[in-house]
Amino acid sequence: MASADWTKPLAYIGLTTVAYTTFKLLRGASIYLHPSTLTKEYNPTGKNWALVTGATDGIGFGFCQELRARGFNVILHGRNETKLQKRAKELEAEFPATKTSIIVLDVVGVTNAIDEVGSQVRETLARNGGELSVLVNNVGGDSKPYTMLEAYTFEEAQETLDKNAVFMLQITRVLLPVLEAGRRGIVLNVSSISAYGMPFISVYSASKGFVDTLTRALEAECVAEGRNVDVMGLRVGPTRTSAFDVKAGLFVPNSRELAIGALNRVGCGEVIAWAYFWHSVQGVMFDVMPRSVLMKITAKKMRELKKEEEEKAKKR
Length: 316
Ligand SMILES: NC(=O)c1ccc[n+]([C@@H]2O[C@H](COP(=O)([O-])OP(=O)(O)OC[C@H]3O[C@@H](n4cnc5c(N)ncnc54)[C@H](OP(=O)(O)O)[C@@H]3O)[C@@H](O)[C@H]2O)c1
What we know:
It is built from ten helices and seven strands. The protein is α/β, with parallel strands linked by helices. A seven-stranded parallel beta sheet has the order 3-2-1-4-5-6-7, sandwiched between helices. This is NAD(P)-binding protein.
């Protein structure tokens, strides 16, 4: 029996893969050429406020710097009052034309005391003028990265969910009416490459999946109701921060570079977009690679990161 000729089908599969990858790359690249509508849409008077959660370090502080550079007054949220005041002073020194305020609240074990954040923000606006027009839901992280699910204690698992998912949901619920009271507002939710579902960070991964779904649902809800609040998710890949002490490079921006990318994506037309161009290139690779291969590579990387963490911990 003559053997089947696979040349044609394989050529079609190859061509389709190349065409799909090219299309994704071109479409992805167009998002990075679109000018940001952040200032025009959400701070036309130059008097408006942005609230950033987890603002004392890493990407959150990068957001604060970049929002102030674009003329926004900033409310910094965090858990440590001394650190918040220190960071607020740094911002005031770097950008004297804009104002700061702080909100102290631990995101872990959040209770209905969070409802008071609404009145705290309204008081800040009443005292200083301007509207709350931007909410950056940035706070997040993994309480026990690079381990198996059962290695988490009950508290560590809950903490990770609170940090990434529960607090975001609750503060957005509380602040949506404040955003809506202004001319136009936007909620920016920080997501992660880990939303693909990655081994050894399963709780964190799942919580970022929650962020993506909440973003899509809330965006659709606001559109359906014709509300004056936009909702957008910003997907983030490896970024050098206090929590992730890796060498910066083309594929690893620092916190400020990431924040610049994120704010530049506002108005790009996507509900969820990669904040930083080179992360989007990694995203395309993730989309086209067979999942089994991708997860093999990811598991290896996670084990390496765990080893690095353990070695660093030994030196401390
Ligand atoms: N870095 C990355 O490679 C990367 C990749 C993908 C996604 N992301 C996402 O980007 C966001 C920022 O990450 P990052 O790397 O910039 O984190 P980071 O450097 O650890 O900063 C986290 C911020 O959140 C605050 N925070 C932590 N726990 C808190 C708590 N219980 N209550 C109140 N505030 C708390 C920290 O405050 P303290 O100063 O008091 O600790 C800090 O201001 C997160 O949502 C993360 O999932 C990061």
